[in-house]
UniProtKB/TrEMBL annotation:
Name of the protein: Zinc-dependent alcohol dehydrogenase
Keyword Phosphoprotein set for record: no
Keywords: Metal-binding, Oxidoreductase, Zinc
Entry cofactors: Zn(2+)
Source organism phylogeny: Archaea, Nitrososphaerota, Candidatus Nitrosotenuis
InterPro entries membership: ADH-like_C, ADH-like_N, ADH_Zn_CS, ER, GroES-like_sf, NAD(P)-bd_dom_sf
Length: 340
């Protein structure tokens, strides 16, 4: 099968992903599914892994690897133990490719926190390819009404956005700032609106602010620097009840913390050092990581019920390097989807 393979880490401008013919995956376990991939969303975390930014976190754990972890495709073969799914059915795969199913996290519906969690796109089982296998337990059916290219971003950007809004403990009528309105952020705006929040979109790039308005943000404020931004925020909205951060900048993280009222909540969807934090303000700083299988089912249900807008553009699989470079330099308005 054709796949974009990472054999050596390096800047995306050097085109480190190589188009290769590798062996097509085979059913190995009783409850395995073989999937013909129809769309795979392109996530910024893949860029960090490819360029070596996350080596200190053990990502990627080994080379070679096939990136890609927000996948939709059609089942073309099933293992003998598969019970609920069938050949010809379309399913999606999130970054959570598997877990032990026995630890306390797994038994309490928090499989994504399992110490033995298996991550899609950190081995040769990745979405920048024509085929992939996955356990029936970690495949989520999608409605016939959803196009594969539309649904693919829901399996990382969507679940990440949904889980971040949940982590912010939303209360109807409260105000939340979404810092970074790109592939994940535009969906965060929508899930926050579904939760009944007043939503303020924050971004450096005017195109991203336009995206925020397009998906329903109540107000948008351009970020230039912290003093100027906080001045505009206080003038237009007052301090926020909560903030959700997907902008990969420690300056923006610090600004988000300072934009929230005393006793408010800041949810971080990015890795960052926290230079200062006023403990006397009683703010809550919380991390978030994708979500559980139940969360993933909720995302698909809510997307269908609320006709969520997924802003995306499709590209051929072979253009993965160029798409990631465009993402690096903020030339992607929301989400790119690779199609084999």
């Amino acid at each position: 099968m054709r796949a974009m393979v990472l054999e050596k880490l390096g800047p995306i401008e050097g085109k480190p992903l190589q188009l290769r013919e590798i062996e097509t995956h085979k059913i190995k376990k009783n409850n395995d599914l073989l999937i013909k991939i129809e769309g795979c969303g392109v996530c910024r975390s893949q860029l960090h892994g490819i360029e070596g930014d996350w080596v200190k976190y053990g990502i990627p754990p080994a080379l070679p690897t096939v990136p890609g972890h927000e996948i939709v495709g059609t089942i073309i073969e099933t293992g003998p133990g598969v019970k609920a799914l069938r050949v010809g059915q379309r399913i999606g795969i999130s970054p959570l490719h598997g877990s032990c199913m026995y630890c306390n996290y797994c038994k309490t519906g928090r499989e994504h926190l399992c110490d033995k969690a298996e991550i899609t796109g950190e081995s040769l089982l990745g979405g920048y390819a024509e085929y992939i296998t996955v356990s029936e337990d970690f495949a989520t059916p999608i409605p016939d009404s959803m196009k594969s290219e539309y649904a693919a971003p829901l399996f990382c950007a969507g679940i990440t956005a949904y889980k971040a809004v949940k982590a912010s403990e939303p209360t109807k009528g409260k105000t939340v700032g979404i810092f970074g309105v790109g592939g994940v952020g535009h969906l965060t705006v929508e899930f926050a609106k579904i939760a009944g929040l007043r939503v303020i979109g924050v971004a450096r790039n005017k195109a991203h602010l336009d995206v925020a308005k397009q998906v329903g943000a109540d107000n948008v404020i351009q970020y230039t620097n912290q003093p100027e931004f906080l001045g505009l925020l206080k003038k237009e909205e007052g301090l926020l009840d909560s903030a959700i951060v997907f902008a990969p900048s420690e300056h923006v993280v610090d600004t988000a913390i300072n934009s929230v009222k005393k006793g408010g909540t800041i949810v971080l969807g990015v890795l960052a050092n926290i230079p200062s934090f006023d403990v006397f303000s009683e703010k809550t700083l919380r991390g978030t990581l994708i979500g559980s299988r139940s969360d993933m089912s909720d995302v698909i249900r809510l997307a269908k019920e609320n006709d969520i807008k997924v802003i995306y553009k499709t590209y051929p699989l072979e253009q993965a390097n160029q798409v990631l470079e465009d993402l690096k330099f903020s030339r992607i308005a929301a989400r790119a989807v690779l199609t084999p």
